[in-house]
Amino acid sequence: MIVRRWAAWLLFATVVCAWAEMLAGDADRGRVRFRSLGCIACHSVDGVGGGYAPDLAKRIGRESTPASMAAGLWNRSPFMWRMIRARRLVLPDLEAQDFADLYAYFYSARFFDRAPDASRGRQVFFEKQCGGCHVPGSSAAQPPAPEAFPPLPDAIVLLERMWSACGDMSEHLARKRVRWPELTSQQAADLAAWLSELSARKLLAGELPAASSQPGEKLFQQKGCHGCHSGANAFSGRFSGRTLLDFAVAMWNHAPAMRKRPALDYGEMRQLAAWLWMLQIPETKGDIARGAASFTQKGCTACHQRALTGAPRLTARRWDAFTLMAHLWRQATDMHKKLGESHQSWPVLNASQVADLLAFLNRPPTPRSY
Ligand code: HEC
Ligand code: HEC
Ligand code: HEC
Ligand code: HEC
Predict the structure, then answer these.
(1) Omega into 153 within 30° of 0, i.e. cis?
(2) Is residue 301 part of a domain?
(3) Most confident segment among 142-151, 198-207, 301-310
């Protein structure tokens, strides 16, 4: 009985851990971080940026997983850090979330939609009959004129507002016998460009509330999306090659099919899209036994499972490819030094070895590990 309870608890624990595993990246945030973190001083992305280091959009493409990015960073880090020191650059600490965002950015940088175009956006607004209800210059409170829309910093926020107004909009559409205005991602981007030009007014500080930072996976539960999208209708394994905006657009286009739609607060559509985006990324499955073997063969055991070497214990915390990169980022220099002192060379890892090591570090606790 006790054994059964234990087994059930372990099963529960692994399920919970698997849930907690997915850190969703946001490609747009990654683009901003790539510049603000100073990577652009050396690296380029799809040809834009410094020419001293590899173009990361070419290195981290559609075939790359978080584990293969971690392997690349791991293997190149001695060289990269020497170069950073030689140039006397001071780079900030990076969090796991930064790496998730950077990964999403590198991964999708070469596949972004065409640049938005405001004049095409104006055309879409009238072709899709938005202009029949949202009459420019009108002073009606409902439906409001497009100039009276709340601030719309990007296409995903536009779709978020539209999604939340779906109920009212579909009533009006039914009354006017207008079909649901489905959009492509390009059309949504163009529309947002035109609408933001139209309001032509600079946003005041504090005019936008703080964007939600609630993880998309949690929102998916809290908002009740999960109630319809589970079991046979679950999303895992269903998508590939989509951008964040593609997900927001898909939600809009399918909105009439989702009868009990929850309203979304500012930033929530983006968080949901980031999580759905992450479902497209195939995981490199790790193997605990292989990871245990690598941990010894690659020399990790020699330092990390021996007291007095100064190397921290790596067990009893949660690891994924992004946390590994964040820790490596902060501690790589010390680890290089220690290896140098003991005349060892930097251990080289490939993507599946990284996945195996992560599986090994995350292995379920056994009574002996306490
Ligand atoms: C001083 C220049 C410099 C800066 C700044 C820099 N890097 Fe690098 N990075 C390099 C060099 C050089 C390499 C390639 C080393 C090699 O090929 O052995 C590299 C390699 C990498 C790789 C591995 C690519 C592969 O081939 O798989 C990643 C990932 C990476 N850098 C991420 C970053 C990130 C993220 C930042 C900013 C937070 C950053 N780098 C800042 C010089 C730099
Ligand atoms: C049949 C009439 C109708 C059509 C067509 C229509 N809308 Fe709406 N729209 C409404 C109504 C009604 C509301 C709800 C206004 C409210 O709640 O104050 C609304 C709300 C919105 C909002 C949210 C405004 C806010 O204050 O949050 C946006 C943005 C919007 N619509 C954009 C569009 C776009 C873009 C199109 C075309 C793709 C479109 N609408 C087509 C009737 C319409
Ligand atoms: C009342 C049931 C219901 C709820 C609640 C619901 N959906 Fe849906 N959703 C559907 C149906 C039905 C479809 C269209 C059929 C399909 O694609 O599975 C759909 C389609 C979608 C699609 C498009 C899938 C594709 O293949 O492009 C996305 C994305 C989506 N929903 C996300 C969400 C999110 C996020 C939430 C929560 C905010 C949500 N849904 C809430 C029923 C629902
Ligand atoms: C020569 C000794 C040595 C070897 C071999 C070694 N490490 Fe380390 N490692 C260290 C030291 C020392 C630190 C801590 C640096 C610090 O705290 O500044 C560290 C830190 C780390 C960290 C960051 C831990 C944290 O809490 O931030 C990770 C992850 C890591 N090592 C993984 C590995 C893996 C995987 C291997 C084998 C492929 C390995 N190490 C091999 C000495 C070593």
Answers:
(1) no
(2) yes
(3) 142-151
